[in-house]
Amino acid sequence: MSAFFRALWRRSSPGLFITSALTFLLILLIFIYPLLTDVDPLAQDIDNAFAAVGTPGHLLGTDNLGRDTLVRLAYGLRTGCSCARRGRCSQP
To answer: Which UniProt keywords apply (predicted)?
Structure first.
């Protein structure tokens, strides 16, 4: 099987594999992250407004209303992919 991937690597650009890996990681984030956290993407915590990136409990920080940016990103990706899939599947 590794010979197959080596031949594929020689024939295609490295950008293809980088883009595929990034897409796979984003899809993994869509399905796995909401299962690992119990944070509501709409819950507001004004005391933690504008928390910096890397703040404990907020990996990507928070917005102006104190909502966790990573959780909102994961749920937004899920919604976007769901809409894109439905739009693609509904065409004749």
So the answer is: Membrane, Transmembrane, Transmembrane helix
Please state, in angstroms and rounded to a whole number, the distance separating the CA atoms of residues 67 and 79. 17
> What are 28-42's pLDDT values in tens digits?
888 888 788 888 889
Q: Return phi, psi of residue 38, to 5°.
A: -110, 20
End-to-end Cα, the chain, rounded Å: 37
Pick the residue with more confidence: 73 or 87?
73
pLDDT in tens, 42-76: 999 999 999 999 999 888 999 999 999 998 988 88
